[in-house]
Amino acid sequence: MTKSYYDPADLRKFGNITEWSEELGTKFFDYYGKVFEEGALSAREKSLIALAVAHVVKCPYCIDAYTKDGLQKGITKEEMMEAVHAGAAIESGATLVHGVQMMNKYNKLSM
Amino acid sequence: MITKSLHARHNELAETNNQLKILNGGIFEAGELPYFKDKIALTGHFPLTPKKLEIFQVNVGYMCNQVCEHCHVDAGPDRKEIMTRETMQYCLEVIRNTGAHTLDLTGGAPEMNPDFRWFVEEAAKAGIQDFIVRSNLTIMRANKKYHDLPRFFKKHNIHIVSSMPHYTRGKTDKQRGSGVFDASIKALQELNAVGYGLPESDLRLDLVYNPSGAFLPGDQVAMEKDFKKALQEDFNIKFHHLFAITNLPIARFLDYLIASENYEDYMYALVEAYNPTAVENVMCTNTISVSWDGWLYDCDFNQMLDLKVASRIKHIKDYNEDILNDRNIIISQHCYGCTAGAGSSCQGTVA
Questions:
Q1: Is the pLDDT at B174 greater than 80, yes or no?
Q2: Which of A70, B44, B98, B224 has the fewest CB atoms nearer than 10 Å to its CB?
Q3: In chain A, whose CA is at the least distance from the CA of B212?
Q4: Looking at the domain assignment, is residue A6 inside a domain?
Q5: Domain tally for chain A?
Q6: Does CATH number 3.20.20 belong to domain B12-339?
Q7: To the nearest whole number, what is the mean pLDDT of chain B?
Q8: Residues in B touching A12 (Cβ below 8 Å)
Q9: Residue A12, in any domain of the structure
């Protein structure tokens, strides 16, 4: 057993999850593949969304995968960083909007 | 930024045997990844044999005005290997009689061969259907004596295939050297000015994209769309098609992969992306590659690894198309570069 929770080489083994649950694994990868095809959104746009989400969910595998995917699609580093900021802004916004709840509670409890 | 070839730096990879040792050893020898031979055998493609010869590719020398980081030729200003007029004469004899419909001149920067124009003029007389010159673009701006190349190409109806790694300055210059982007843009505008690359024009201008790093090219059609939009909007440049080419793990790109610790991941990516459909149309099945000194190879990559054709005809002076076509193609693990994803060849994707 590896002493580390994350090993970059494990990303290559992602497909192996199907071995222990073939039907669900296959359905997932079919769905996954379909999601990232060209559609109403381009594959390029979806790659940038995936990169932003990868950062928000803090998945090192996804960050590696979608940085590489972006490079393959000719996405520039400036575009990638803006996508990360879009994710970060929503994530920090989600924290800060709870400030309203704090304010509501504060006001309710205060004379 | 590198400024000298592996040869001039006496890098151990300048010795092709050392490259082959790496490609045949390590993760392949350990059984982590299958040898190319075994992989293609699974789909009944071993041994790989030629189909009808379509492309006659001549490398007129390894000298180049650029020293690109990914160059599979290890070309540069310090490379002195240049095809002589005598070897060109042998090539012309073949060009006049070959069944191939495409003549493909490459290098180095082919324009730097002192007999380049003479060779083009003579070869054009043979009336071959598609006459390609692979130009790095910047050569047209490198020196006054090259400034009239667009008109020269037009006169002989040459099909220009040019390298352009990205439509942004940063990525282009990082791979190919400082100032390359601006010089390439200027050269493309001049080619457009004489009629190359315009939508209805017969003067063909295609661009070659190859990734600037340890990753595979994306979808060729999508990239062509992005390139066309950006080059049109930013520089009013037009071209016909974009060929997406995978970097093969040889020469300077292999050196880069090893130095940046990307070699194993890159080989995994190539093997994972293996596409049996691409094997059907790999360029070595319809191409013969001639080196500056007249030796014959299955492709330009085998030429750079000094893997000569497995035929009793090994040199242009003994050329015999029938005998040559009856051979097995030499393969090694670098061949995974041509079978990954949508496949890769000098004419772009193949699957």
A1: no
A2: B44
A3: A71
A4: no
A5: 1
A6: yes
A7: 93
A8: 268, 272
A9: no
From chain A, pick out residues whose CB is under 8 angstroms from the CB of B226.
Answer: 44, 74
Closest CB from B167, B213, B268 relative to A71: B213
The residues spanned by each domain of chain B are: 12-339
| pLDDT per residue as tens digits for the range A44-62 | 999 999 999 999 999 999 9
Q: Which residues of B touch A42 (CB under 8 A)?
A: 222
Judge: B218–A74 Cβ closer than 8 Å, yes or no: yes
Residues B106 and B322: their CA atoms lie apart, in Å, by 24
Q: Does A7 touch chain B (CB under 8 A)?
A: no
Tokens of A59: 């998945």
B contacts of A44 (beta carbons < 8 Å): 222, 226
pTM of the model: 0.89
Place of tokens 């381009």: A42
- ipTM of the complex, rounded to two decimals: 0.78
Task: Say how far apart CA B54 and CA B85 lie, in whole Å.
Answer: 24
Rounded CA separation B241/B207 (Å): 6
Range of the domain at A63: 21-109
Is A15 in the B-facing interface, judged by CB distances under 8 Å? Answer: no
Identify the pLDDT of residue B168: 83
DSSP B216: -
**CATH number of the domain enclosing A87:** 1.20.1290.10
- Please say whether the beta carbons of B336 and B36 come within 8 A: yes
